[in-house]
Amino acid sequence: MCPSSPLTRRSDTKGPYWSEFVIIGKVVEMKKLNLAILCSGGGTNLQALIDAMEKGELSAEIKIVISNNSNAFALERARKHNISALHLSHKQFTTPEEFDQRLLEVLKQNQIDMIILAGYMKMLSPTIIRAYKYRILNIHPALLPHFGGPGMYGMHVHEAVIKSGVKITGVTVHIVDEVYDHGAIVMQKPVEVKDDDTPESLAERVLKVEHDTYKKAIQLFAEDRIKIRDSRAYIKP
Ligand code: GRF
Questions:
Q1: Residue with the nearest Cα to atom 1 of ligand 1?
Q2: Considering only CA atoms, which residue is closest to atom 5 of ligand 1?
Q3: Counting atoms of ligand 1 from 1, which one is nearest the CA of 140?
Q4: Which CATH class is domain 32-224?
């Protein structure tokens, strides 16, 4: 593409995942983000992302779904939508380094721009986090920095929220860094804690909000509207 063309990569963009304009015949289209979704369980967030893409609400393509759990229903969901589904576990390798090497190979082969954690129960190594710096997202079912950290997953989060007596909980989408549940917060949405909530009833309402929030947060990356500075994520208007 000619450097003086208005269709060249915008000068303020960095990294391979920023949106880019390409010419197809006479039609100008925005390049989609290539995503790898990592899941360990049911994959309702994965499903919400698939649905959003099919409705045209998300300028991204799920190139592969990877699970450390061969029985994860998320893998089934991927296959139903003709998305590559891969079981990749540390147990298949002798060392953690070999696992990382294979994961990086798979990500490269699929030209992955961003890694999306959606209920992935393993911590990614510093090798992977550095290779995809600022390009790995996680969703957490509470308002970080509260109710996060090791041991705070699944129903444990909602039990702790109810026990604490807070009136508001919610959803956090954040960049993954080397500290558990810690990286720059991209988006948060509140959910009211009702007096008669059980961890299960609260989880159900939070999950619905997760489904709506994750696609919106990822779309901001697809639109090249997130900048990270001093551990904070800023959304360009
Ligand atoms: C979600 O609550 C998410 O916040 C957390 O793991 C859960 C995954 O649920 N990280 P699902 O597999 O997407 O249904």
A1: 119
A2: 119
A3: 4
A4: alpha beta
Q: Tens of pLDDT along 86-131?
A: 999 999 999 999 999 999 999 999 999 999 999 999 999 999 999 9
Q: Calculate the CA dihedral of residues 163, 39, 192, 226 and round it to 10 degrees.
A: 120
87 classed as catalytic: no
Report the candidate in 36, 34, 16, 50 with the shortest Cα–Cα distance to residue 215: 50
CA 224 → CA 17, 118, 130, 198, 230, distances in Å? Answer: 8, 21, 20, 39, 18
170 close to ligand 1 (CB < 6 Angstrom): no
Q: What are phi and psi of 36, to 5 degrees?
A: -115, 130
CB of 44 within 6 A of ligand 1: the answer is yes
d(CA 85, CA 78): 6
What predicted TM-score, i.e. pTM, was given to this entire model? 0.88
- Return the bridge partners of 66, or none: 38, 86
Tokens of 183: 């990286």
Q: Where in the chain are the domains?
A: 32-224
Which run of H or E residues covers position 22? strand 21-24
Strands 33-39 and 60-67: parallel
> Which one of the listed residues 140, 174, 182, 211 is annotated catalytic?
140
**What length does the chain have?**
237
Residue appearing with tokens 């289209």: 29
List Cβ neighbours of 91 (8 Å cut-off, separation of 6 or more): none
